Amino acid sequence: MLTTVAPLTEINNHQGARHPTGTDPSAFNSDFGEFSYLLDKYTVEDDEVLPVYGESFDDLVSCSPEAEHEIEPEPIETHLTIEEVEETIEEAVQGYKEKWRVTKLPLRKSMARGMWITSRSVGIQRCLITDTDRDIERLDHRLTKYRKEIAEHTWESQKALLDQCSILDVTVSDLEDALWRHSVYNLETEPPEVARPATRPRPAKVHDHEDSVSVSSGEEELVGGNISLQDIEELGVIGEEQEDEEWDEEEKDKEVAVNGEGYIYLHNSISSRIKPHQIDGVRFLWREIVTTGNESQGCLLAHTMGLGKTMQTITLLTTIAEAANSRDPKIRNQIPIHLRTSRTLIICPSSLITNWTEELDKWTTPELKLLLGFTHTARPDRSFRERLQAIEDWGGEQGGILLISFDIFRRLIHNKSLRKKPPPLTEAQHDNVKMWLLESPSLIVIDEAHKIKNDTTEIAKAVARFGLGGSKQSRIALTGTPLSNNLLEYFQMINWVHPKFLGTKEEFGTMYANIINEGLWADSTPYQYRRSLKWLRLFGNEIAPKVHRADLSVIKDELKPKTEFLITLPLTDVQLQAYQAFIDGQLSGTGAIKMHNIFNWSKWLTLLWNAPAIFFSKLESLEESNFKAKPRRGTRTGLITGIDGERRSASPRNGDDSLSGEGLSKHMINEQRQLYGQWKKDRSALDLSYKIQVLEKILHYCKWIGDQVLIFSHSVLTLDHLEAMFKRDGRSYQRLDGKTPVGDRQDHVDTFNEGYTNIYLISTKAGGLGLNLIGANRVVVMDFEYNPQDIEQAIGRSYRIGQKKPVFVYHLLTGGATESRMFNNSLFKKHLAVTVVDKKNVIRKAVMVLRDYLNPAEPVPQDDLDPYLGKDPDVLDKVLNNDQTKCQIRSIDLIEFHEDLTANLTPEELKEVAEMKVNFRRTREEEHLRDQRERLWKQLSLNMQATHAAPCPSEDVRRDRSSFGHLTLFPDLLRPNEKIPRPRSFSSAANPNFVVPNNRHVYRGGPEGQDDKDEETWEPRGTLM
Prior knowledge:
This protein is α/β, with parallel strands linked by helices. Among the domains are: 3-70, no CATH class; 82-198, no CATH class; 199-293 and 955-1025, no CATH class; 561-568 and 689-815 and 860-894, Rossmann fold, CATH 3.40.50.300; 575-587 and 612-648 and 659-675, no CATH class. A seven-stranded parallel β-sheet has the order 7-8-6-9-10-5-11, sandwiched between helices. Helix 13 (309-324) packs across helix 15 (353-363), helix 17 (384-398) packs across helix 19 and helix 24 packs antiparallel against helix 28 (666-679). The longest helix is centred in the first third of the chain and has 27 residues, at 125-151. The protein is globular and about 85 Å long. Residues 1-72, 201-260, 624-655, 836-851, 897-903, 921-925 and 945-1025 have low confidence and may be disordered.
């Protein structure tokens, strides 16, 4: 007897289906030909074990002929072979190369002679060749990587494969550009002059093939999604034909020309990829940096991490450079004189210098690179002489862009070296460096500007010296976290971009900071709360011209959901005894407790909460020199050499640089010595903490489901402890802290994102900036400090554009002790930031009375954990269902802010705010000018509305608009969905990337004297500024 079984997926009688290899297609001509083939293929002996595929063939043939004809079998699953995939990818690459040669090369040839002459006349030929070599290497590496990732995927059809290959277009085009530039710069003789190819006349309309485009949100990410036509129109990429209008009146020509000024556009390479919130950011930067005329001032771009602050800054730089080099004086004269020379200084953390370099390469075409000038870098991995040479080249005749780290800038300005060595610069060298860095830049950009939030730090003092010599300079501060601890930090950054804009520090503290702070605690009085809300409104109105804020809500549709859990755990017996001994010992002396001691003690206790073994090990490593410090009045002293009385090495074995023995009392050390002796034999108890146990369970269940995990800690000693555990348990992991070379970090990140390791141990301070770790969707926060924005930055390494999975964050908190009070303090600061920066009225949770840190341990009540089941079924549910860890977790809370419906101001309170502003004491000339400027903007806005409402503006409106001088550029800064007056065949009002006749000087600032009756040639421009 024969038994037959067949996969239903192989029963395919669709017309045109691919037949199995080696099968005569004629066998499929009859209705049952395919069944005959399958009968022969799947006939087996009785004693053979059959796979289970659903229905057997006996069931199929037992059906009636009518029933057989009614069966609709599934198609055969076919896949392209590896050879077919590689061949298709190669054909796509060659096609994109040919596309570049046809569409781009003729224009490039017309630019070759100018590029060759410029590179030699300015003396940057060698630099440009080095730059292009680096571009070629980077682009070739990227292309190889993308091709490999595409080839490793299984493709069912060639069409799907070709659609995915479309992401190679930009990289191939950029690589061909780089190779061509390299060949031009290496020519020994001047290339011949080639005429610029004529612009092909074409109407501005949407073609069928332009209904959707594929884009990539990052260089390291493959994206197969599409953007709808509506989205493209909102970004100002595609125009539409409009009915022609009569446009012969001279007055209307002047109206569109905005009193003789030409329109400013974004470069086409940028306008096709920019997002709506980035358009708003660029317009804000343009308004504050360019349209303010020759005033030396700046602004704060406070977009949260991941929204493209770097890209927006580069867009501004390229737009200024294009306009400044325009042949049309109507365009060129809009740029302040000091910005017409490209000499930009960018100060950022050392870990972001590479990111800036890559972003500049990504967003600037070869012609834009020439306009911006060479990018110089004073990198930490370069020698001291190479850094000075880069600064000299940039500050001298070359100009361009200089990238420098905070640390190097600080040391050069103050002429200080590390480890108390002699000053690195001679007096003459120091004078030159100060002149180059402080006086020569026309535009200064500080990335991660919250680094200068404390005006007493060396870096804040260094950046405060810009422009003291009288040079005109514009300033831009970039930060995603403008407020970390208190309102004075916000003041410091605004005061840097525009000194005295908010008055003096003392005035600001009295009028704003103190009143706002005291009303935002959960236990503030109703009077304090309402008064705080009113002053918050007044403060928001004051800073609005100088700060542009955007949070993740602007890209919420591009982000996966994020859930943050606060998991509260109790103390173990060892932790409880050690904590009580610490409190008793430190409070047993006399004198006042200093705040710097509180901070130091908190760091020690953090080690205790993470694992007692770390705490005791660090105490053992101390020697007498670690305790000695300059005596402070009122500080408890009485210090010893170490916990076991033995002398130690001059430096600790491991540990955080900021952790010292200063302020630790002899009585406390004696208590800890006795306690350590009691528990020393029970090593498991010293290693034990409920944080470690819960962490191990989280890692265990994450490994089950294949999720990667980031573990953040402020303590390097904690990372050491976890690393030793992972080595012992055989876990695959990577580690990043302050000692990880900057040049190696990106390679480590790429390795992790590619899935070679499951766990990444990261120092919160060192790894919270500049890393894209979207390979992980689980984040564990081991400890807290006083700045909540450090943790927000750390979480942002995973929760960002490009993340493919929902993100889960686990904050592990030791309840009933100092860490609870630290978290309460950070919660208040986070609430303050959300209220002040994001202007959201949220329910207050932090309690004022918990600001007393050194209190005895309190019992942590057991809460009901069942309501949290189902919120994280793959990991947290399993942790809660585990008998060992469930009894350790005391409570779980979701870290989220809810709107406070009582926070809206009443009409009476709004009236009071208006009166407060009117009566606000104006004692400085800057404030009068600001008031006058605000009135001008308001009047201009009203005039614009009147212009939009009437097709033909009245004489009065035109007269009003003509009186605002350089401010009349503002109509060019409309949002994408706002209407503007349009001549003839301008595009839809929703599209700022409209099409203009290129021979009408009143529209685009062309040469005067052109005949308006000439034939119009249509040409798409960039996004209208």
